[in-house]
Amino acid sequence: MKRLIGIVTASLAIALTVFGCGHYSPAQGWVTLIDGNTGLDNFNRLGGANWHAEDGAIVADKSTTKGASVLVSKQTFKDFELYAEFWADHDTNSGLYIRCTDQSKVSSASAYEAQIWDKNPNAAMSTGALLPVASVPPVYKAGGRWNTYEIRAKGQQITVKLNGVVTVNVEDGKYPSGAIGLQQNAGVIKWRKLLVREL
User: Fold this and answer.
1) Average pLDDT of the chain, as a whole number
2) Closest alpha carbon to 96 in 124, 121, 78, 72
3) Residue 7 belongs to a domain
4) Can you give the residue range of the structural domain that contains 132?
5) Residue 23 resides in a domain
6) With left for phi above 0 and alpha for psi between -120 and 50, is residue 178 left, alpha or beta?
7) Its pTM surpasses 0.90
8) For an engineered disulfide with 99, which of 12, 51, 154, 178 has Cβ 3.0 to 4.6 Å away?
């Protein structure tokens, strides 16, 4: 009997490991935009950042032009779930745009931006905030480690999670659909996963 319980327990552990890792599997409707070193061909580039594949991620660490540079997805989305893994330095100014309505000039004046900027002088709009509609207390930090953003946008309801913690839950219909954008404004930003599932 003890042996049978041991076998069942081991089988259950293996099953949970296999199926648990498949949460963001493309087979379940997820579209992979970035997977390690691959994915740059899913985006158009705005600005002068040196976006490139390096050490299992898509990276930008400097720019030849002033201001923000953005990778803009060629595909647009309306209602969706998004999962992203990113690494930011302590002084990085970056962000994850959703529903970019103007793909030639992406900013928080034409899209929502899940902020990545621990040292924003406007602390209420630092990491975890959703520009231009939702501020946060300046307690969320991303610098110096890998992080996850999970965003759900369904109609006017938008929820943002940073490392599993809800930072924003807001209703706003200003930008109903559009592309996804990855920003580099200052400092190092790395993206190793970006998956989207339409709702």
Assistant:
1) 89
2) 72
3) no
4) 30-198
5) no
6) left
7) no
8) 178
Percent of the chain with pLDDT over 90: 81
Cβ(67)–Cβ(186) under 8 Å?
Answer: no
Handedness of CA 189, 75, 180, 148 (dihedral sign): negative
CA 38, 39, 44 angle in degrees (round to 5)? 145
Give residue 24's pLDDT band: very low, low, confident or very high (50, 70, 90): low
* pLDDT value of residue 26: 56
Number of domains in the chain: 1
Percent helix / strand / coil, the chain, rounded to 5:
15, 50, 40
Residue 114 lies in a domain: yes
Nearest residue to 34 via CA among 71, 77, 76, 78? 71
What is the rounded distance in angstroms from the CA atom of residue 78 to the CA atom of residue 81?
A: 10
Tell me the C-alpha distance between 90 and 147, whole Å: 13
Distance CA 91, CA 70 (A): 18
Is 53 part of any domain?
yes
Task: Tell me phi and psi for residue 193, to 5 degrees.
Answer: -145, 140
Among 35-49, 58-72, 85-99, 134-148, the range scoring the smallest mean pLDDT is: 58-72
